[in-house]
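Repro:
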Amino acid sequence: MKHDSIGSGKRKPVNLSLDTGVVEAARALGINLSQTCESALRAATAAERSRKWQEEHREAIEANNAWVEKHGLPLAKYRMF
């Protein structure tokens, strides 16, 4: 599995409380619980970081969008598409 910028490669045992029906179904299908939980946590972490970044930079993004709306894209005349 490809690792992104989060994670050290080290493993830490943790206790989780999961719905027993979900755990039984996953095990019956041969799904690796640790790998699946780690993958979901990576995705949730990336999504939250992105949301926070967008929130922190909202004013700059809005200002840039307003400038482009008013003036158009810089170098637009050179675009080939």
